[in-house]
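#onboarding

Welcome to the new folks! Below is a worked example of what a typical request in this channel looks like: someone posts a single protein sequence, and someone else replies with the predicted structure as tokens. Don't worry about understanding the tokens yet, we'll cover that in week two.

Example request:
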Amino acid sequence: MLIRLFRSAGATGHVFFLKNGRIANKGLAYSGFIGPKTTVAVVPTTPQILNFAIDAQTKDKQNVVVQGSLTATLTPSTAVSKFDFTVEPKSGGYLGNWVQVLNAKVIERVVRAVLDKVKDLDVEEVTRSQKVVEDAVTAALGNNTFQNDGITIDSCSIPKIEPGDEEVEGAIGAKERQTMLTDADKALHDRRLKAAANERAVKEYEAGTRLELEKKQGVLLDEQAKNKEKEANADAKATEIRLKPLADVDAGKLLGAALMDGFKTGRISSIVVAPELLGALQQKH
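Example response:
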């Protein structure tokens, strides 16, 4: 069969035809017939994940393993002439090893950046410096480092940096655990001190409130006593005023008048006339 139908690029594959030393750009997700001497190359347009695990030595001569990944995007028109993206037309599977070649090209730069940064840090520090090493790798690769190869580095992620020696890792872990316990104890102590201070403040406030209330109650009682004294004085004065006209009246006359008033009002219904009563009625001042 001289002519074949090619439709294996998929939705994200950028298709190129290579024939007689020439490259023909067929665009994204091309599907069509190809001649018997035409080679088909498909450049992926989706981001490529490049994983790495790098052995490095710290400032204090300890081995660590830096694990991470890069995200790279390919520029099809440039990358197609730098890597072998040839595919088998029927299945669409790659015939070359462009993934390994691309990975090696990029990771070579990553290794240098990681080694240069890690050698300036001690082992305990480097295990907590993932972001620092990420930034060093990003700076080393730059935006245009692989521009001529059609590669753009989008991001770098280093989630883990571990000591190569288990004993060193255990020692660092023990120290971190001790630091966490110390921080937890301090936090608990601070909370207790704060609670105690709050409790003292509440008690002082309550004591002050009670004292203020007692003072107000004392002032109220003083005012009540003064008012009662004024009432008593007023009553005495009123009695004095009422009795003053009677000061010059004979006692016997007063008693007689009281008896007569009692008979009139019905408060007295009968009396016994005794010598004592007669004597009282005749009493002068």
